[in-house]
Design brief:
Blueprint (H helix, E strand, L loop, with lengths): L2 E4 L6 E4 L35 E6 L10 E7 L13 E4 L2 E4 L4 E6 L13 H18 L7 E8 L11 E7 L4 H17 L3 H12 L3 E5 L2 E4 L10 E5 L11 H21 L5 E6 L14 E6 L6 H6 L2 E3 L3 H10 L7
Parallel strand pairs: 2-15
Antiparallel strand pairs: 1-2, 3-4, 4-7, 5-6, 7-9, 8-9, 8-13, 10-11, 11-12, 12-14, 13-14
Helix pairs in contact: 1-4
Length: 336
């Protein structure tokens, strides 16, 4: 029978199909075919993009040619601009402000065809280090309230260029989706004096039903109230509120787990388009805030339709415990 499940953080409800669940192979995927057009992110084409804001050099530098492993640039077509003001203007019942913000592109490596799953773990660690360093730098500007780092892979996930890259958008406001998580976490902490994410991890540590992989101090799992089929989260096992306070040592463990998790999603689901995003505390929050940073990975296997838009409910055709079993074991023996 279908189930209604309530998210313990946001109080959002999700409908989960536990009666006739969809499994890998039953989703219709869009093509992730590569284009042959000239790529502005490839080495030798640096003049086609804005100048680098931040770079990480290659560990073994070539005798000639490019010497960068990760290159961060301003987005050539930004959603928001750093030059805009943040003054709010009332318009009767409405309110507006200048389109202030930062919009950057993290070019993840020099190779046009190497996604995170094909890199060395240290190279994935370099990408995560670039994320951290850009967050720390933008913290210096008090106008920023929130930094969102995200990756779109595949055309149906919003990627317009094939070269592996992620994006960063700095905002003068905290997004409502994050605010909902912050408020839910604060409410639970106020009543139970514990982190709701930590409580979920503690329960999962005993049950091991939703866990996919573990690496160092991190775990990848399918959230019990997954909104989408094969939705996957990566969280630190111990309480950490802010992503940009992560150490170099932990970055490498996170890199290994991120690479392994994305690799399994790619192999089990036949290379689907996906989005991932990092949810962390706002810039002004304390390091010990009752929140738990995490990475959310959303394979683009279904579409949000009228019911979801009209109600705010999501309909997930694959129970997360079944999704975790497929991703953990790749060829599981399904037990009903």
């Amino acid at each position: 029978m279908p189930e209604l499940r309530k998210d313990p953080v946001t109080a959002r409800w999700v409908i989960v199909n536990t009666e006739t669940p969809k499994i890998p192979g039953s989703f219709r995927l869009s093509s992730n075919k590569k284009s042959s057009k000239v790529c502005p992110f490839c080495p030798g084409h640096e003049a086609m993009t804005p100048p680098a804001i931040f770079t990480i050099p290659r560990r073994i530098r070539p005798k000639s040619g490019h010497d960068w492993q990760v290159r961060v640039i301003a987005n050539k077509f930004p959603a928001l601009r750093i030059e805009e003001n943040i003054e709010k203007t009332p318009l009767g019942v409405y309110e507006k402000m200048g389109g202030f913000g930062a919009h950057e592109v993290i070019i993840e490596n020099p190779d046009h065809h190497k996604e995170i799953t094909e890199l060395e773990p240290e190279e994935v660690g370099d990408i995560l280090k670039a994320y951290r360093e850009r967050c720390l730098d933008l913290r210096k500007d008090p106008r920023f309230r929130y930094i969102l780092i995200f990756k779109n892979y595949g055309a149906s996930a919003g990627a317009t260029l094939e070269h592996p890259h992620s994006q960063l958008i700095g905002l003068p406001i905290v997004p409502s989706r994050v605010t909902g998580e912050l408020e839910g976490a604060a409410w639970h902490h106020g009543s139970a004096h514990r982190c709701i994410f930590c409580d979920c991890l503690e329960q999962e540590g005993r049950e091991k039903i939703l866990t996919i992989f573990e690496e160092g101090g991190f775990v990848s799992l399918a959230p019990f109230v997954s909104r989408f089929p094969f939705e996957t989260w990566i969280l630190p096992k111990h309480h950490e509120a802010s992503f940009d306070r992560i150490s170099d040592e932990k970055l490498l463990s996170l890199a290994v787990l991120l690479q392994r998790t994305l690799g399994r999603i790619k192999s089990v689901l036949k290379d689907p388009a996906f989005n991932f995003m990092i949810h962390t505390v706002p810039m002004t929050a304390l390091a010990e805030a009752p929140y738990h940073w995490h990475i959310e990975i959303i394979p683009r296997l279904t579409q949000v339709a009228g019911f979801e838009w009209g109600t705010g409910f999501y309909v997930n055709p694959t129970p997360p415990e079944l999704a975790a079993q497929f991703l953990r074991e790749e060829n599981p023996r399904i037990i009903s």
